[in-house]
Amino acid sequence: MLSYLFEDAPDFGAVREISPGILWLRMPLPMALDHINLYLLEDDDGWWIIDTGIALGPTQELWEGVFEQYFQEKPVKAVLSTHYHPDHTGMAGWLCERWRVPFYMTEAEYYVGLAFGRTGKDHFNWETELNLLRSGRNADQVKAAVESFKGLSAITKPMPTSFRRLTDGAFLTINGNRWQVVIGRGHSPEHACLYCSALNILISGDQVIPRITSNISVAGSEPEGNPLKEWFNSLEHLQDLLPADALVLPAHNTPFYGLHERLRYLVEHHEDHLLALEEACVESDRSAMDLLPVMFKRPLDGQNLGLALGECIAHLNYLHQRGQLQRHIDESGCYRYLSADDTLPLRLRKRDHGAKNDAPIRV
Q1: pTM of this structure
Q2: Domain Metallo-beta-lactamase, which positions (predicted)?
Q3: Which of 99, 117, 149, 272 is 20–30 Å from 199 (CA)?
Q4: What percent of the chain has pLDDT over 70?
């Protein structure tokens, strides 16, 4: 069972000390998941900012309040983003320009973020439309998606035009402590976590989160991607590398203990979904839209529908590429999936299984 360092969380724009020189800062998000956790690491000559918040609403004003209240004696020294998603990089360009400091990120995350951070309404192309049709959305739903698309430039300040590369196994020395870069994949291309063995603290970003599970999605930009395979490999790598009793500082919810237990749960959670999807495709072929209720019981609309559909396709791609599901295109241009294993119904009857259908929408 997971245990939590605090029973509550700081207000937006306020900080809480995790340990000397490590501060927890929360910023608001304009969605059901209404916050992101950022972390401030004190060095001998300045502060490191780990993740930045989204470039929307009061985030910039809240940052100015943090500077005024907490950074009077030492300036910002560096900005580091764990991955390219806008709640983690939205303010990176502004922060680096304001303080004239370097930006740290992995190579894949930087270049993907540089590209996606500049997308606007005109970047919804025919390939993205085709991906939606392949998933089972009808023409009206695709049209609505096109009309509502704004791109990430609306919520992301222009990213810094240079960066300092983080690589797996490299170390950053901050206030005399060595923080090892630990790379995870699946939620994003080359997600950087930071682990300090002297403090036994892991800054996990979105790679490990309590209470909710990270979104593992396929998007129109890489329709044949297999992020779930990368996710499984990363969870195994984290469990082999990191101690079970590490204090985990996640990007959402609250700091917790129970790293290995959480990693095992995440593997089982996705394995249950895979089995449930394969079972649902035994007697007739199904589209990704048809299969959403297998993974999600709650009503889905708007952004939640897009995230859920991307996650469903990630599971279907995993099964298809392993040869467990057959896939064909029907007359409407939609992918339809059918189990490739004739022995599956018998095996299912012998196993007590059940997808965790009440799992919340992921980040």
Answers
A1: 0.92
A2: 35-252
A3: 99
A4: 94
